[in-house]
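Q: What structure does this chain adopt?
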Amino acid sequence: MAGVHAVAAVLLWLGVACLLAAVAALLLLSGRGSLGRLHALAPANGLGVPLIACAVALEQGAGRAAGKTLAIGLLLAVGGTVTLIAVGSATADEEGRGRRG
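A:
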């Protein structure tokens, strides 16, 4: 059982590190326009949230609660990615850098 807790702790800290790296990138890219800021948030949605959800699910053990936690983490990761793509596309179109066609 101690091995599961160790793996959960590693996953949790990796997820937190991804979130902190996204915050640092957001601060560094704040002067580069809205597309740069959106780009900085991508790792938080795509990697940080799923890692934290996996860590929480491991701590909960096998069962419905862990399944629900993983489903929520998946929905947040997919929804966040889709939202970033949509907002980035709209921002690029508004700034005149979007696709032509």
